[in-house]
Amino acid sequence: MSLVFDSTTYEIKTLVHEGVTVTYRAFTHIPYVEKPVLPDWQCLSIYVPEAYYKDEASINGYNLATAPIFFPNAVGGYKPGKECEPEIWTDDNTGATHANSLFHALAHGYVVVSAGLRGRGMKDENDKFIGCAPAVICDLKAVIRYLRFNKGRVPGNVERIISNGTSAGGAISSLLGSTGNHPDYEPYLKAMGAANATDNIFAASCYCPITNLDHADMAYEWEFGRCGTKTPERETISKELQAMFPTYVNGLKLKDELGNALTLNANGTGAFADYVKEQVIMTCEKELTKGTDLSSYDWIVVKDGKVVDIDLTKYIFYRTRMKEAPAFDNIAMGTPENELFGNENTFYRHFTKFACEHSEVNGELAEEMQIKMMNPMNYIDDASATKAQYFRIRHGAIDRDTSLAIPVILATKLKNQGIDADFALPWGVPHAGDYDLDELFEWVDKVCAEP
Q1: Where in the sequence is the domain holding 301, given as residue range(s)?
Q2: Secondary structure in 3-state letters for the chain
Q3: Domain count of the chain?
Q4: Which domain-ending residue is among 371, 389, 420?
Q5: CATH number of domain containing 100
Q6: Total-model pTM
Q7: For the segment 235-250, what is each residue's pLDDT rounded down to a tens digit?
Q8: What's the confidence (pLDDT) of residue 117?
């Protein structure tokens, strides 16, 4: 199977949304590995503004050779993701029409790449599970290798690839940005017949990343444990996990922008807790400056027209916990993450020693390497990994799918390694993504303009 891009096979399509017309070339269903496990899934599509094929045409200063490649993934809950296409749909309740990020990216002048990716629950003809970790990240890396292998043949600038994802997709975007060219993934990529090229990317956009899974249970209880659990047994588990979190945080040796150590005391208080609190205060202050009336929020302290403090406990109760302890590696198993860490013969497995030791179903523990390869934190300070130059991390201020500590840790670790990480907790936003595409594209344009 040839991995050389064929520029002669395409369709020209047009979509119109709110007065904006997008005409584009669609190069679809292109195999990106020579030995696919699932040939109908492991394919990519490339969408290109048709204007770029006109003499000297440009959009927002980009042309066929210089346009950034916007690379959104369709990963949700670590399930499989099919190739997506530019799309407009109508809300049945309101009648309003909406366009997806691919449409808006094309309108802005980007080349867009979408790929089919394996995920949890997938089986082959032999009834073997083939979508467990690290399948999804290896598929994404193979797509990047295909694009880089075809440099000069594929449309767009392969040195300006920007990944984008939400939730589990945000986690995978952060992983793609943290693990470029790392040898841990090489055996898998070789077995797939990935192109002989590099797989690092330029920038990673990560909405509410459900990441750092092997420490996410501790973080969740550190934050939401004060909200209580359903049973005394789970309350005991919550307290045990809370007690483990300070040791983990302190071992990271995180520092703030002034070089101060971000640590926790044994009771979970300390500089790191204050730092998380500061991120929320900044969000509130930004909203206040927009003219929003915050007087109904009893956890926000406003003095002389400024947000000067928040009651962190009241804020956490305002959001309240959503998941029972442990939130991710469930002792009864059955979570999407338990399924992610299965293997070809086992549907669910544990991925933390704690949950395995407390397992109510005598669950197996996944292999150390499998767990390692799904956590970007293991690669950020590893010189063998080529990191993206830029990260943009957004976690909604009322998101409760994972602890605020998780994206704060990710962004801070990146910054401590000298990587440009743009982090914010958008006001009033729950577990969601692609809600600020104008701002996202402004960021993409800015970083792509950097020398």
Answers
A1: 214-371
A2: CCCCCCCCCCEEEEEEECCEEEEEEEEEEEECCCCCCCCCCCEEEEEEEHHHHCCCCCECCECCCCCEEEEECCCCCCCCECCCCCCEEECCCCCCEEECHHHHHHHHCCEEEEECECCCCCECCCCCECCCCCHHHHHHHHHHHHHHHCCCCCCCEEEEEEEEEECHHHHHHHHHHHCECCHHHHHHHHHHCCCCCCCCCCEEEEECCCCCHHHHHHHHHHHHHHHCCCCHHHHHHHHHHHHHHHHHHHHHCCECCCCCECCCCCCCCCHHHHHHHHHHHHHHHHHHHCCCCCCCCCCEEEECCEEEEECHHHHHHHHCCCCCCCCCCCCCCCCHHHHHCCECCECCCECCHHHHHCCCCCCCECCHHHHHCCCHHHCCCCCCCECCCEEEEECCCCCCCCCCHHHHHHHHHHHHCCCEEEEECCCCCCCCCCCCHHHHHHHHHHHHCCC
A3: 2
A4: 371
A5: 3.40.50.1820
A6: 0.97
A7: 999 999 999 999 999 9
A8: 97
